[in-house]
Amino acid sequence: MNKVFEALAHPVRREILKLLRKRAMSAGELAQHFTIAKPTLSGHFSVLKNADLVTTERNGTTIIYRLNMSVMEEALAAFMALAGAKGKER
Amino acid sequence: MNKVFEALAHPVRREILKLLRKRAMSAGELAQHFTIAKPTLSGHFSVLKNADLVTTERNGTTIIYRLNMSVMEEALAAFMALAGAKGKER
DNA sequence: ACTATATTTCGCTAATTGCCTAAATAACAA
DNA sequence: TTGTTATTTAGGCAATTAGCGAAATATAGT
Questions:
Q1: pTM over 0.85
Q2: Given A3, A34, B30, B66, which residue has the most CB atoms within 10 angstroms?
């Protein structure tokens, strides 16, 4: 879970997740939304992948990134354990 | 909001928040829960404070840290905007 | 085999982080 | 004022991060 929070710490990576929330996209498509160099972006992809926040699937020469919803939800649950508070004590 | 996510990226800082969720505590009290040096911990406090996740109040020689619930909830909302998707769509 | 496209890996640098010990500051009591 | 306790600031160091351009890899088409 630590890797997940570390992955979320960078604005570009959060934006990537936000884009993938709408639909799966190739690395190139994602790159069009940013002005940073592709190798840099590729590094961000690998952080997200390492945290299991995204999965990949090769399709010819392109690689499709998609959000890993289950891990996102686990992360959300972990966050709520911090911020949540709402009741559930003792 | 970026500062908040950066603050959440370190396990010690998340643990601090978790402790403060139960009740406000002084720096020294918090320190008892960790094995790291106090100056290091003080650095973590300042990251949390800078992100507005905690507030401080001096009480004699001690400084009381308390969770800033409203910012925690904003952060939770921001997180849900990323992970949210709570089933309900399509 | 060669070319083109998509993406990643490599090698580098600058900036930041996290940790420490030692020193400084703040508040209080004697 | 001196001493004591609580906490932070300063200074330094090793490790990590984020960025880049150039080179490497993978796949497909000709």
A1: yes
A2: B30
